[in-house]
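Request: Not sure, any thoughts?
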Amino acid sequence: MDRDGGPRVPQRRAPEATGAGFRFGVLGPVRAWRGDELLPSGSPQQRALLAALLLRDGRTATASELIDAIWGEEPPSRALAAIRTYASRLRKVLDPGVLVSESGGYAIRAGSAALDLTRAQELATAAEKARAGGDQARARHLLNAALAHWDGEPLAGVPGPYAENQRTRLAEWRLQLVEVRLDMDLEAGCHAEAVSELTALTAAHPLRERLRELLMLALYRSGRQAEALAVYADTRRLLADELGVDPRPELSRLQERILRADDGLARNPAGAPAATASAAPVRPAQLPASIPDFTGRSSFVRELTARLADAETKVMAVSALAGIGGVGKTTLAVHVAHAARPHFPDGQLYVDLQGAGSHFAEPDTVLGAFLRALGTPDSAIPESMEERAALFRSTLDGRRVLVLLDNARDAAQIRPLLPGTAGCAALVTSRIRMVGLAGAHLVDLDVMSPDEALQLFTRIVGVERVSAEREAALDVVAACGFLPLAIRIAAARLASRRTWTVSVLAAKLADERRRLDELQAGDLAVKATFELGYGHLEPAQSRAFRLLGLPDGPDISLAAAAAVLDLPEQDTEDLLESLVDTSLVESAAPGRYRYHDLVRLYARSCAERDDLPAAERESAMSRLLDFYLATAAGVYALERPGDRLVDHLEPTAHPGLSFGDRRSAQDWLYSEADPLLACVRRQSGPRTLRRAVDLLYAALDLGESGANSKQYEATAEAVREAARTVADTQAEGRAVMTLANVHQLAGRFEPADREAQEAMRLAAPTQDPLPLCWASNARGIIALYQNRHTDGETHLTRAIEAFRADANRPGEASALCNLSRIHLAMGRTASAVTLAEEGLAIYDAMGHELRGANARYALGLALTQSGRLRAATDRLNEALTVFRDSRQRLWEGMTMFRLAEVDLAGRRPAQAAANAEMALTVLRGIGGEWRRGNVLTVLGRALDGIGHAGRAQVCWRDALAIFDELGSPEAAQVRALLSPVAAA
């Protein structure tokens, strides 16, 4: 018998597998399934027999080998009879031919794929091959699939020396696979995510130095250098105390490299087993398609292509194309970029910087998109523009990547977006000359030559039609001022109208006013080219073109466009698709449409110029505002059944969309975030201000989720100022209340309290229930965070009374849950539990899934302090599931933090550390520094509990710095934790 036979690729198979449809498991409890039916596997000794047979890969085991496997050196007197009994029972459970007797022994014949261990081995082998071949993404996927076959302890509950030996080997093999997978996670840039798991693993396996090495690297790459060094100090002390040895050389070398901030640590460490030279990084290929009828510009193509080809020998090649709108800058840049792709094998990045409009792309947003395209996970992307730019340059170091920055506003916008090393290059297009861009090769792009212009026109219209009317064709391109965009629009219109001759088009362009417009520089020239397409629109098309250019935002949905036009969706879609055919509107995605920024400006000028009454323009935007407000109110009501907030919103004359479930409602809200907030800003005039503010209020999930917090806050500031300007106290009070919510969620408690107090003052004369109720509620929770518990109790008692007076049961539940937390802080644990349970009962009775999660969160805190840890964990996990499903990152992170507190109370410091690390990752960039300080405090306590004293001190010092800067009372608690260190 192979006593030490462990997990391995089988050497020899049974001649034929007869157990089709059977599955067996040994990477957990020993189990058997027929299809999806779990079969009884009998007593522990019977499962030991089954396990011993399964782990022999179809080979026969003699009776003596099985006796030795199950009982070892002291078998019972009737061991052979017992073996036969167990085999007989298994035959009754399994199909005939699965358990066979031969040569005085037994064998399982079910095929290699029937055993979870074999499937895991095959996946692990495939992962190793994929990694060796440079396919890191597939390797990680395969390895995760292999690890997914484990379901707890291998051979759980199976007795005998053979099972114990196999259990040890399988557990060690799994740990090896986990180490390899974590190594690949770090290669893929998932540093922050890996810290949580590595912290838990090092607690479970404190003497395993490879895990410590990976943890140090993950912390360092997450910007936590001091913690990484503390891990080394903790490891050295532990090894000396437990084994009397020093850390292995690899660990010591990593510590030295961290101390000197070795640049190589930002990438895969040289010589690391996982960092094979063939590892394939993410290679973005973002260039837009090059148009098939690209014409002319041959000298520019040669010049720019040559400069890009020489990029490897330059510090960093930058070429900036400038020219009037419609001159073909983007077309040329995209064509050149495609031609130069072989010189940039590591990828090509592209972005439209929207520099011609008022809402140009912010560099930090673009950097975030670029880093994601290069494989950087969201959790590893820094918040500040400077840090993002530095990480972007570091990521491109040693790679050959082309960056195409289209439609730039100015040099300041693009400087942070430029690579910093040789081998990379940037192509920039802009309406202005980039004279302030040091070292850039400047190219001034003029209109086409007459020959090039005619060639472009011919390619679009067709040789036959142009050849028959060459002079008329020359008149057309001349009337277009040889501007490529104008030529393309004119030719496209002619090509789509087979009954027109070239002469008809030339006659239409003979209007002198249009020709003069064509010959002027800047936007007027572009405007004249759009006039060509606009002049041929049918009345319904032209009305749609004018009105749909009025809203702001990156695009507009079909439903929103139907509201603007006051038409059924089908008719609206027909009009929009016809405008797409004219190239005046683009189809951004199914059901979504957008204007080029210059076309939008032109459409608005048409709305003002072409006898479109101001009242009609205002009505169109009012309908859009109604649409957004009615739909957002419906989403709010679906999320919060029975909440009276929707009853206090301004009435709408235009209906909105309705949704059958929360998921589709949330999808709409988040997909419409940018155009919705843009509508609020644009509609903050006197006539529509109140509805705009109410739309902001109804869409408060956008500010609470973390995904759109910055835009939401900026919009709230804008409408607050608009309300002040027109002295509308109701609108101002509600706008100020939204700002109070924003500040509170960001951890800025003093301004949050000021704004909430101001909202109450503004609402007092009219007794507006929204600010009066919700401001008291907000001030109560703010007082909790500031340790003003008596004040908090007063505010929340007032809030409960106000909500009850308004018959707002969900609002009452919110205030009850917040009051529960006040009582908890005051040591009144029993009443805290009761209050949270009252709030939860209200929410559950009204079908509030999301706000019910908030109540479960509050109840979990109270149960934790009352010592009912199992119930606290259950409530918090229920809340966590809802928060994740609702995309509420702030509350997801805070719930992970609270679970860490429960783990600490239950003396599970390793699990507490893992949950606290996850909380830090989720809360990255949201929730404010105060919340981060609290998480760091708990993380330090958890780390201290698993013997990572050095890392714990680093966490506490970071938390203390945060609390000191904020002037928070929590600083005293952290100082007490650090007091032994301070005394030393």
Summary: The CA atoms of residues 151 and 262 lie 40 Å apart.
